[in-house]
Design brief:
By secondary structure, this protein is α/β, with parallel strands linked by helices. The chain has helices spanning 6-9, 30-37, 87-99, 139-151, 196-209, 233-243, 256-264, and strands at residues 10-13, 16-17, 48-49, 72-75, 104-109, 130-136, 156-161, 178-184, 194-195, 213-217, 221-224, 227-230. Bound molecules: iron/sulfur cluster.
Length: 284
């Protein structure tokens, strides 16, 4: 994949908006932050169907799909695809994914424990064009969600360790069905710190099991060598790239830039906060 053309490869599709918080990783949810930033009057915890609900099958005046063939469609990034409030709409989404077998659909979820019950009848061992990312943020949620994730029939599995809130050990859950582990810190004004040692620890676990590893963003408060760095949102991805610690990324083409952009949300960093961003952070 040519990483210079990422914006031409992925598109976003948010069939509904709004979500309820279910675990520590949700505390400063980017959906809530974005809604606040844009002055939304709607309660972010209320889920509502979006006008673009049927975007994948929408056609233009010439009869072609608005989303061209070959795109990676990032699905449901302003909610959780497995949210209970959206149960009545999900079958239609599965149907659209089936119709658009010429595109890849990728969603993350903190509700992997609901997947089995809500799979479509023809799912079998998974749709070829659906990638599911199981999100974890701490050891407790990893130990709960990952055994469930491993047990499920899914063609393309990734683990999203973000926002990473503590040192976690997932080696026992890394088998060959996992196509990528993507790790990042938390964004936003109140972001909890992420320690580089935790990132390196996860990387080592992935290398030991030969699983592709992607450090996609530092987050806003990043600890390296016991020093806290405050990193503006626009540098969180580039600083992670500068670490140059990705492992075998590219085996399966998940554009980390897209993940980063979609996950960061739009919460601006406080200008009053003392700026500690250092561009030579990796050159100690
Ligand atoms: S969108 Fe994700 S982070 Fe936000 S409340 Fe829902 S599950 Fe939590």
């Amino acid at each position: 994949m040519n990483k210079n053309n990422l914006s031409e490869i992925y598109v976003g599709w948010n069939p509904w908006h709004g979500c309820t918080k279910i675990s520590p990783g949700c505390k400063y949810c980017y959906v809530y932050r974005q809604d606040e930033m844009y002055g939304s009057v709607t309660n972010s915890s209320l889920c509502s169907k979006n006008a673009a609900f049927d975007l994948p099958v929408k056609k233009n005046r010439w009869g072609s799909y608005k989303i061209p063939s070959g795109k990676i469609i990032f699905t449901c990034f302003t909610s959780d695809f497995l949210l209970a409030d959206a149960d009545e709409w999900r079958d239609e989404c599965w149907r659209m994914m089936r119709i658009r077998s010429d595109c890849m659909f990728y969603f993350f979820t903190k509700r992997i424990d609901r997947l089995k019950e809500y799979l479509p009848p023809d799912w079998n061992d998974g749709y070829d064009n659906v990638i599911i990312g199981c999100t974890i943020e701490n050891q407790d949620r990893a130990d709960y969600r990952l055994p469930i994730f491993l047990s499920l029939p899914i063609k393309h599995k990734t683990i999203i360790a973000a926002p990473l809130l503590e040192n976690i050990f997932i080696s026992d859950y890394l088998d060959s069905s996992i196509e990528e582990v993507s790790v990042g810190g938390e964004s936003g004004m109140y972001a909890r710190p992420c320690n580089y040692d935790w990132i390196l620890n996860l990387r080592e676990q992935c290398i030991q099991k030969d699983i592709p590893f992607n450090f996609h963003q530092t987050g806003a408060n990043f600890i390296k060598d016991k020093r806290l760095y405050r990193i503006k949102r626009r540098y969180q991805k580039s600083q992670a790239q500068k670490a140059n610690i990705n492992y075998k990324i590219g085996k399966f083409s998940i554009p980390e830039a897209a993940l980063s952009n979609l996950m960061q949300g739009g919460c601006p960093d406080s200008e009053s906060f003392r700026e500690l961003t250092l561009f030579d952070m990796w050159e100690d």
